[in-house]
């Protein structure tokens, strides 16, 4: 049994474009795979507890990770903890620095949930940072036009991993659908078409 756990980014949701495109792609080309994309809790520790629980719910499955932006940071933590393969899309490398600008009330534009980014969340994120990276476990895709994150931080952190650097683009990852064959290939998935 193969499961994919897709982890969306900050203030995002399973209804985001990349999550929807990923879900559709795997349903169409790999119907044998179960695709998980939960609405992630708003605090880092609650998010990790939630993701840990999902993985623990099927201990005999082969888990594969996908993470976008802050989800890429969480995916890195989980990939190192469980030694799993992960595809990271415009991953956040130092989200604890970025979130300084978001401390206070927030509204998720997808779910309309109101919540607080607290100073404690900054320390919690810092505690999840992975310094040692298992180089064979990652495919990292970045676009140089990312207006939210400095793509060079990801290039530096994951320099020993498989890296795909696209010129231009933006944080949403322009032409994302075209990358999904690369994701499936990295995961060593054999192409099957749903009838």
Automatic annotation (TrEMBL):
At the top level, the lineage of the source is Bacteria
Q: Where is the signal peptide?
A: none
Name of the protein described by the UniProt record: Esterase YqiA
């Amino acid at each position: 049994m193969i499961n994919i756990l897709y982890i969306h980014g900050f203030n995002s949701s399973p209804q985001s474009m990349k999550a929807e495109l990923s879900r559709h792609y795997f349903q169409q080309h790999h119907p044998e795979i179960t695709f998980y994309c939960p609405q992630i809790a708003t605090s880092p520790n609650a998010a990790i507890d939630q993701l840990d629980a999902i993985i623990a719910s099927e201990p005999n499955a082969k888990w594969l990770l996908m993470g976008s932006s802050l989800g890429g940071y969480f995916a890195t933590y989980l990939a190192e903890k469980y030694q799993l393969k992960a595809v990271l899309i415009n991953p956040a490398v130092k989200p604890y620095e970025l979130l300084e600008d978001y401390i206070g009330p927030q509204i998720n534009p997808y779910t309309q949930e109101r919540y607080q980014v607290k100073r404690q969340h900054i320390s919690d994120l810092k505690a999840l940072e992975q310094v040692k990276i298992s180089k064979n476990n990652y495919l990292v895709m970045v676009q140089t036009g990312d207006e939210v994150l400095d793509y060079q931080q990801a290039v530096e952190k994951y320099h020993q991993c498989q890296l795909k650097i696209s010129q231009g683009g933006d944080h949403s990852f322009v032409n994302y659908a075209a990358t999904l064959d690369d994701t499936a290939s990295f995961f060593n998935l054999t192409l099957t078409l749903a009838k």
